[in-house]
Amino acid sequence: MASGWTGLSQEVRCHILQILRLDGCKVSRLATVCREWQTELERYNFARIRVTPSRLVDFGSMIHRNRALVEYVWFCLELDEYGCTKCAPTGRTLTQDEYEEAFSINDAGGYPITTAFQDLFSVLSTWDLKDNLVLDISIYSPSDSKHWFPYLTFMPDIALDMLGDGMEQTIPNKVYNDPQHGWRAVRARMVRSVSTSPGDNHYTSPAVLLPEMEARFNKNLKRLVVFENFNQQYPVIMHQVLSGDVLSGCVSHRKPTPAVSRMVGLASLNLEYLAASFIVDASHFFDVEPSWEWPNIRSIVLTSSLLTPDQDPAKIEVMLQAAAAAAMKMPQLETIEIWNGRRGLAALFKYQVFRNKQEATITWRGTWQLTMETIFNRGLESRHRSLCRLQTQFRSGTSGRSCYQVSR
């Protein structure tokens, strides 16, 4: 085998290895063929790794020799399966205890979720990270796709053609017809891939996790992206399925808590890039301690529930003033984006610095008109005028858009 393999040209050998990687077979078994195969296939196998809580104990030792090859870690927390009131035997009314048991969610495989995150970051904190490392986190239960959420798949946040060993798509495309759970064929939808941070329908408070995670962050961590999807159709579907029963406490949009926003803000002090959507509100994030500074931050992207047409403009003004005050403690800042979006509504406030031109722009885009002149003149401009001697000029853009140019 060796003589025949070495007799092939380098181009042909590389092409064969590429075909093997795309063939769908477990290429990890082929690494024992010869030394060259081992070298090439290990570079592929270890580039993207799937980690479960049960493997955390040996995670460090398992990848120690090839740690430099790791570019992407998918931390996969699979929760226990749960029951469903709609799938329960009919003929009698469920008791309160049975309802609670049906909807209860336990930790991942008997492994406490908080402990799993602590152990993961304890391992990652020992790595000497010279290059970029992406951490993707999925939290889900196998029961999700069996009952109320059949269209959800939980896959790593990479393109489908980049999936390696053990990362195959497990749920095929199909039409869903399950009226009992609110899914009818004429209304079926399909999502190819979902990978969210706390999960679409399971919630572990970052106020608990972030302090532990922040203490274990490697000092080389420069980018943090936290995204929590919230599907507005869930409460509607549940309301219909439960025959119109009132769902107390089930709101149509996520209401972030100040404590979570504060913890994310604390974790961002040494970052260069932060994006936190829906789980954080910009109005809470910028309500910071006077001593907080961001010496390295270049870009911040946040959502805010204040950006709605029926909101009091004075509250929006207070938030933007707080954002301006925080920006003065960000010497490397290039962009701040505050946005909001849901069905029938979209809004974006953007502050962008052009250092080579010694100017900045403030842009508003939305499906509704925000009177930026008043907010800008009374809020942002007054703060910057005394500190940066900024001059402002207002010009009207296209419908739903206003742009302010700020020159130093």
UniProtKB/TrEMBL annotation:
InterPro entries: DUF6546. Residues 219-373 form the DUF6546 domain. Pfam families: DUF6546. It comes from the Eukaryota. This is DUF6546 domain-containing protein. It comes from Fonsecaea pedrosoi CBS 271.37. The lineage of its organism: Eukaryota, Fungi, Dikarya, Ascomycota, Pezizomycotina.
